[in-house]
């Protein structure tokens, strides 16, 4: 979602970083460019105006210009203002009540039903909730209840609905059902309309009045940009929402919705939907997002993801090997497999600072199998000292692995690139995260 704005802002940031002595004119120019980038990303004009004015005031109104590291300070001001825009303190779900009643609302097709299942799945895994009920109260679209039922089976949680056309009645009975059933959370999938209308709001208000809802979350489509921001504002005025889940952020949305939402509505974004699959769901971190938008990398997210798939012991082992310069092809294979477990490499690389300079190490499953076969067809000596692989050895390895000499060649090239990359990173050690799988972070 933020690709284009990230590209622009990181270019501006790089430019500012490179300036030796910063002048008022430099700052003004940078601010002008930032303003243009935000407008192009479809950020609300009021937000852009206030945002740039604040930066200007903070950077020109202080002694910043005269200070030695003015560029860093300027970047920090921009970063902090983006964090403020996105919502300073990470707001999180209120889950203190048992069960926590949670209602998801939003326009038609914004992703409510999918998101109900994603959120249930998230609560199950991240909060170890083991008793969750999904309630289907979309009585308008014929297949809606069936869709939710299927999803509930997929993630193995309970489902409730009735074959009647009264959403309020179904909600009432669902709430009754939860008494003495010890549910951790009860999630309501409500109906969507093309436009927010009085009848829809009335129905939601009635459901809201049936019990205490810990969360009323608006599901908003990032692709709709400022329209989604207006929708959020209207829903909030009418219903009082506690948070926003921004969906379809994997599409080519320009980021304007995400950057304007909190400022315009006062309601924080709590989660992002990043794909159609049920695990494509992330908690929203303003700090990390701000760093990502500025191209400063999102080390914290990356480390969290990595720690899930790689054990500390494995990471230490690799680090030792690199130090001793014995990182060989077997380690390479292990590393790729571990990276693979973390999810699409493209997603990960976006979080790493300066990744545009990194080699392409994105492999699909099939390619991974080939790589494995090629490495397994090598002798232990070849794996340890790949530089001894000459033309005839290459041909033998290709034959043994059912691939081609070109493939073997490509693999060796990638291995060398990774080795170089790791070595390079090793020089800029990031000591805050000693257990990160790639030494150097
Ligand atoms: N790419 C992408 N697609 C999504 C995401 N969230 C939902 N979708 C897709 O959006 C479409 C609509 O999703 P639903 O969950 O049915 O939306 P809804 O709001 O319940 O729709 P109605 O019940 O008709 O109002 C489906 O094809 C989903 O797979 C997301 O984060 N990324
Ligand atoms: Mg639906």
Which key features would you list for this structure?
binds magnesium ion; disordered C terminus; 9% strand; eight-stranded mixed sheet; 434 Repressor (Amino-terminal Domain); 3 domains; 441 residues; 19 helices; binds guanosine-5'-triphosphate; alpha/beta; Four Helix Bundle (Hemerythrin (Met), subunit A); Rossmann fold
Describe the structure in your own words.
The protein is α/β, with parallel strands linked by helices and 441 residues long. The protein has three domains: 3-86, SRP54, nucleotide-binding domain (Four Helix Bundle (Hemerythrin (Met), subunit A), Up-down Bundle); 100-285, 3-Layer(aba) Sandwich (Rossmann fold), CATH 3.40.50; 299-427, Orthogonal Bundle (434 Repressor (Amino-terminal Domain)), CATH 1.10.260.30. It is built from 19 helices and eight strands. The protein has helices at 3-18, 24-40, 45-60, 70-86, 112-126, 144-155, 167-178, 198-208, 226-239, 256-265, 286-293, 299-309, 312-323, 329-341, 345-349, 365-376, 380-384, 391-401, 405-427, and strands at 100-105, 132-136, 158-160, 185-189, 215-221, 243-247, 269-273, 281-283. The protein has an eight-stranded mixed beta sheet, with helices on both faces. Helix 6 (144-155) links the parallel strand 2 and strand 3. Helix 1 runs antiparallel to helix 2, helix 2 packs antiparallel against helix 3 (45-60) and helix 7 packs parallel to helix 8 (198-208). Residues 353-360 and 427-441 have low confidence and may be disordered. Bound molecules: guanosine-5'-triphosphate and magnesium ion. Guanosine-5'-triphosphate binds next to helix 5.
């Amino acid at each position: 979602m933020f690709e284009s704005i990230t590209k622009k802002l990181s270019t501006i940031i790089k430019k500012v970083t490179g300036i030796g002595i910063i002048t008022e004119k430099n700052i003004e120019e940078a601010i002008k460019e930032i303003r243009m980038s935000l407008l192009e990303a479809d950020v609300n004009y009021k937000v852009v105006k206030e945002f740039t004015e604040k930066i200007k005031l903070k950077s020109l109104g202080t002694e910043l210009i005269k200070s030695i590291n003015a560029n860093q300070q300027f970047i920090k001001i921009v970063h902090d203002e983006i964090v403020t825009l996105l919502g300073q303190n990470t707001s999180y779900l209120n889950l203190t009540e048992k069960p926590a009643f949670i209602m998801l609302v939003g326009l038609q097709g914004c992703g409510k039903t999918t998101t109900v299942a994603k959120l249930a799945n998230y609560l199950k895994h991240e909060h170890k909730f083991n008793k969750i009920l999904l309630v289907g109260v979309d009585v308008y679209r014929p297949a809606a209840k069936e869709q939710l039922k299927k999803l509930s089976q997929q993630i193995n949680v309970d489902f409730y609905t009735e074959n009647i056309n009264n959403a309020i009645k179904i909600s009432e009975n669902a709430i009754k059902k939860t008494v003495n059933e010890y549910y951790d959370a009860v999630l309501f999938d409500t109906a969507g309309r093309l436009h927010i209308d009085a009848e829809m709001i009335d129905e939601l208000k009635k459901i809201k009045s049936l019990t205490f809802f810990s969360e009323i979350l608006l599901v908003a489509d990032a692709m709709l940009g400022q329209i989604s921001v207006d929708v959020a504002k209207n829903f909030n005025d009418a219903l009082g929402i506690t948070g926003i889940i921004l969906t379809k952020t994997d599409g080519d949305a320009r980021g304007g919705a995400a950057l304007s939402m909190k400022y315009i509505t006062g309601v924080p974004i709590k989660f992002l939907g990043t794909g159609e699959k049920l695990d494509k769901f992330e908690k929203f971190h303003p700090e990390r997002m701000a760093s990502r938008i500025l191209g400063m990398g999102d080390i914290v997210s990356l480390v969290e993801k990595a720690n899930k798939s790689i054990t500390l012991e494995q990471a230490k082992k690799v680090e030792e090997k690199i130090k001793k310069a014995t990182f060989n092809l077997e380690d390479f294979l292990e590393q790729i497999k571990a990276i693979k477990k973390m999810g699409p490499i493209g997603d990960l690389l976006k979080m790493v600072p300066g990744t545009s300079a990194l080699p392409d190490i994105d492999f699909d499953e099939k390619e991974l199998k080939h790589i494995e076969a090629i490495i397994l067809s090598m002798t232990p000596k070849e794996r340890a000292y790949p530089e001894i692989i000459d033309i005839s050895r290459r041909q033998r390895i290709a034959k043994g692995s059912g691939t081609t000499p070109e493939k073997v060649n490509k693999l060796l090239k990638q291995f060398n690139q990774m080795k170089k990359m790791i070595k390079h990173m090793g020089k800029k050690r990031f000591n805050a995260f000693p257990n990160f799988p790639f030494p150097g972070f």
